[in-house]
C-alpha cells in the first residue's frame, strides 16, 4: 500500500508539473521599474511620474498585455521611492535590477539622483531612461542610460538668447544651489552662454547657496545692488516662491527667469500671484495644447484633478519609448540579461519618435534631439506657450 501511495503522489506531482496552471505560474512577466521621489524635497515630481505610469499601465492592461512578437505579456510596475536622495536612488536601482528583475527603469528624474543611479544601471546593463535629468553626466559614456529631455548645454543658451531677444538686457544675475548637480550645472552653462553674447563681466552677480537653505536675503541683497537687469535662477519649484518673494521684498524690480525645474503643477499653488508674468524654459506647455498632448492632459486631469506638469508628460513619453523598444526587439526570451540588451539596442535605433513633449531621435550618447519651450505664467496661473527654440 505504501508503494502504491508513493506512486500516486509521484504521479500527481508530475501531473502538476506539466499542467496548464503550473506553466501559467511560470509565465514571463515584463517588469518596468519607476525610480521616483515619492517623498523628500520634491514629492510632486514623484507623484507626477507615478500617475503617468499608472495611466500607461492602464492602457497596457486594456489591450490584454504588451504584444511582443505576436504574443501578449503581462506587465507590472515596480515603483521605488528614492526620497529625493542620491543614495536612495542607487539602492532603488540596485534592488529593482538584482531582486525584481525589471526589464527597464524609468527615472530618476532630477540629476542629483539620476547621475549616480545611472552608473548602477549601466554597470548591470539595464536600460534606464531619465525623463527629466538635463545634466550631461547622466548619460555620458553610459550606453544603457537614456533621457527623454533636452540637455543643459542646450537649455542654457536657449534662456540666454530668450532674455536677450525679449528684453534687450545686457547685465544678468544668477542665483543657484551649489550643492545640487542640476542647478549648479545649468548656472554654469547659462553664465558661459550669457558672457559669450555680452562679454566678460556681463554676469554682474553670481550668487550661490546650499540645499535646504531658506534665507536668501544676503545673496539677493548683493544681486539688487549689482545693477543686474534680470535674475536667472534654475531652482526647483519648491524653492522658487521663497526666492521670488524675498527678492521683491528687498526691492528687486526686474524679471525673474527660470528653467524646466520650475514646471511643477504645485509652483503656482505655492507662489501665487508673485509668479504671474514670469518666464521659464521647459519641455511642453499645457495651456493651449493640441492633439495627443491635449488628450493626455485631459485624461490626467480627469483622473487626478490637476493639470500634469512636464515631469508627468516626460514620464509618459519615456514609458512609450520603453514600450516601443521592447516591441521593436521582436521577442521576449525570458532570459533577463539577453532581453535587457535587446531592448537597449532597439531603443538606441528609434528615430523620429512622436512624443507629447516633442519629436525625438537619439544621439549616440542616448540624448534626444528635441526643441525647448519658453512658457509664461499667465494671469490665471497657467503655463502658457510663449515661443519655442529648436536645435
CATH H level of the largest domain: which superfamily? Response regulator
Q: Could you tell me how far the N terminus lies from the C terminus, measured between alpha carbons in angstroms?
A: 82 Å
> Which range does the strand content fall in?
15-25%
Gyration radius, rounded: 24 Å
- Proportion of residues in helical segments: 40-55%
Poorly predicted parts = 1-25
Describe the structure.
It is built from 13 helices and 17 strands. The protein is of the alpha/beta class and 391 residues long. Helix 3 packs across helix 12 (310-329) and helix 6 (152-167) crosses helix 7 (181-198).
Task: Summarize the model shown.
With 391 residues, this protein is of the alpha/beta class.
Q: Characteristics of this structure?
A:
391 residues; alpha/beta; Rossmann fold; 2 domains; 5-stranded parallel β-sheet; 44% helix
How is the topology of this model organized?
Elements: H1 2-17, H2 20-25, E1 30-36, H3 43-62, E2 66-68, E3 71-73, E4 75-81, H4 86-98, E5 104-106, H5 111-123, E6 127-130, E7 145-147, H6 152-167, E8 172-177, H7 181-198, E9 203-209, H8 217-225, E10 230-232, H9 240-249, E11 256-258, H10 267-271, E12 279-282, H11 291-304, H12 310-329, H13 336-348, E13 353-355, E14 358-362, E15 368-369, E16 372-377, E17 383-389
Parallel strand pairs: 1-4, 1-5, 5-6, 6-7, 8-9, 8-10, 10-11, 11-12
Antiparallel strand pairs: 2-3, 12-16, 13-14, 14-15, 16-17
